[in-house]
Design goal:
The structure holds two protein chains of two kinds. Chain A is of the alpha/beta class. Chain A has nine helices and eleven strands. In chain B, strands 1, 2, 3, 4, 5, 6, 7 and 8 form an eight-stranded mixed beta sheet that branches.
């Protein structure tokens, strides 16, 4: 860093953009939806902030907030899994890596699930799997569209195969929506990889992503280890994945709400009949 | 490093004399293990299980298919891009009845492993699998899948062709495939790449197979930031057959011959056949709607969550906020 004096600024007031290096005042950054005004770098945001940005004011009613994680494998890596959960809970104020509930987006009532990368890398264990599944089941019961915003490193290793099976559980639940003519919009944010991308994340009727979000099946570190091959730069970004045909649109954060609202208005739940309704 | 196969041989003889084993011997040939108590002392350590499951000479999908199904005809290609040799699929006869079989194929030699990409499918492999699942559904033929992969191939080409989407779609198609499905983990059940063949009405595993959310090496690289902690990671992940049965990830363990599957491919295949045939027969009698509901419920149940009793109702918005529309 060439400008050493910047170090003297109190860090709770400013953030340096990792893309263009611009020093941004936090207040200004928050006003701009946590997007760098200079280079449009989209900073990661938490689930609560995301819900604020996407839903009609005051419309979000959280569900299953008290669902907590167990420790089925008594897993210990550098610290025991329950301690890891507790630390994440204290840090983020959330019970696990997803918030779910009912909300309105542009006047349409939806079932909403928003993942939080800040909680153990947004990993999907039993709680995330259960909450997503319940959200999909509520969507089916109430015939409301389902919107899921992903941010996840994949399945939660500390829950072993139980976490892996959440992929099948959640996919089975969202698949039922498709059979019943209920739209499912998947919004992929930075980063979405592994078991979340390889399950419900990729299966939206509409798949949107934020600019430059890291989106891929295998994280770079896993690939390095397994294949012994470094991935080229610019690889596995939202635009790359769109260009290869797996995302409908890359949508800047500022336009995300209206774009989701557009698709929600265009794709109303059907009763299964094949009649045009204009 | 001690040879894991030697460990297994020891365990086989040890199991026969083990005071914890009431029967006095390993489970007899044909009977499916549905309770780990019957295993007695014959449980191998996690890391040994990993090595046994990956053993080069373990019977792979093709060897099992040849022995279990008569007149097997392999079918190639996903009709979109190319044929993936890491996944084999086709139609064979099980006691005279047609069955669609799809399995991941590892090699038994270095050359074959290179040709088969070490059993790591590309997206086109999963899309071939999907094509064959749909074929089974269309003609009311039951489906058997054989899982044996370190994982889906994580290379750049696979990413470009949508590895995640291919796996997600394969899982999705299986969750509501309108025909009976039995999945068998033969060797290595590597993460999402294995699960793409693993959504079934009945999921079985060979006794010494493993099934894991991530390879022990991968877990070690992420959690301990070094691949050398793989042995510890293997223990923590609870990926061996008996663990899977206890966690109800699999519904039963198919016994292996004493000394391991690689010592007797014929007997291993016979045990696989003895395990799947009655399941297919049972499942074929169920109405499709019931089958799909039960398959949904089978996976719906999996997971451990703590839900404080009586705290289910969500906090309601206060009446004045609703009145004011805020």
């Amino acid at each position: 860093m060439p400008f050493g004096r910047r170090k003297d600024l109190p860090s709770h007031l400013w953030t340096q953009c990792p893309d263009c290096g611009e020093t941004l005042f936090n207040k200004q950054l928050v006003r701009n939806m946590n997007v760098c005004p200079k280079c449009e770098h989209h900073f990661k945001i938490g689930a609560r902030e995301r819900i604020e940005l996407l839903t009609d004011k005051g419309s979000f009613e959280e569900r299953d907030a008290d669902l907590l994680s167990g420790d089925p494998l008594s897993f210990v890596d550098s610290k025991p899994y329950p301690q890891r959960i507790e630390a994440a809970r204290v840090r983020s104020g959330a019970a696990d890596a997803v918030l779910t509930g009912t909300a309105a987006i542009g006047g349409t009532t939806v079932e909403l699930a928003v993942m939080d990368f800040d909680f153990i890398g947004g990993s999907m264990g039993s709680v995330v799997g259960e909450k997503i599944t319940r959200a999909a089941e509520r969507a089916l019961a109430s015939r409301a569209p389902l919107v899921i915003v992903t941010a996840s490193g994949g399945a939660r290793m500390q829950e072993g195969t139980l976490a892996l099976m959440q992929m099948a559980k959640t996919v089975a639940a969202v698949a039922r929506l498709g059979d019943s003519g209920i739209p499912f919009i998947s919004v992929l944010t930075d980063p979405t990889t592994g078991g979340v991308l390889a399950s419900f994340g990729s299966l939206g009727d509409i798949v949107l992503a934020e600019p430059k979000a890291y989106i891929g099946f295998s994280g770079a570190r896993v690939t390095d280890q397994t294949i012994g091959e470094r991935l080229p730069a610019g690889f596995q970004r939202a635009e790359f994945v769109r260009d290869h045909g797996f995302i409908d649109q890359v949508v800047p954060r500022a336009q995300l709400k209206e774009r989701i609202a557009f698709f929600l208005a265009a794709l109303r739940p059907t009763a299964g009949e094949t009649r045009w309704s204009l | 490093m001690r040879d894991p196969l030697a460990t297994l041989r020891d365990l086989a003889t040890l199991g026969a004399r083990s005071p914890t084993d009431g029967n006095g011997h390993l489970p007899a040939g044909d009977e499916l293990i549905t309770d780990t108590a019957t295993l007695g002392g014959a449980r191998v350590a996690a890391w040994d299980a990993v090595k046994i499951a990956r053993d080069l000479h373990r019977p792979h999908a093709v060897e099992v298919i040849e022995r279990v199904f008569s007149g097997f005809q392999e079918m190639h290609g996903d009709r979109l891009f190319r044929d993936d040799p890491a996944i084999v699929g086709g139609i064979g006869l099980l006691d005279g009845h047609p069955v669609v079989v799809v399995g991941q194929q590892k090699g038994s030699s270095t050359e074959e492993n290179i040709q088969r990409n070490f059993g790591m499918p590309h997206p086109e492999g999963y899309r071939k699998a999907i094509r064959l699942y749909r074929l089974a559904e269309r003609f009311h033929v039951p489906l058997v899948t054989l899982i044996d992969t370190p994982g889906a191939f994580p290379g750049p080409e696979a990413e470009e062709r949508g590895q995640a989407e291919a796996i997600a779609k394969s899982i999705e198609v299986m969750t509501r495939l309108r025909t009976p499905v039995v999945a068998v983990v033969l060797g290595e059940g590597g993460s999402g790449g294995a699960l793409a063949l693993g959504v079934a009405d009945v999921v079985l595993s060979l006794q010494n197979a493993i099934y894991s959310v991530i390879s022990p090496e991968g877990a070690a690289a992420i959690l301990w930031r070094t691949g050398s902690e793989a042995e510890r990671a293997a223990r923590s992940l609870r990926l061996a057959g008996p663990d899977l049965l206890e966690l109800r990830i699999v519904d039963g363990l198919i016994p292996e011959p004493p000394g391991g599957a690689h010592t007797d491919a014929d007997r291993t295949a016979a045990n696989v056949k003895a395990a799947i045939a009655p399941q297919l027969e049972r499942l074929a009698r169920k109405p499709i709607a019931e089958l799909l509901t039960e398959r949904y419920e089978r996976f719906r149940r999996i997971g451990v969550v703590v839900e404080p009793a009586g705290a289910v109702a969500p906090p309601k918005r206060s009446w004045w906020k609703r009145v004011l529309g805020r």
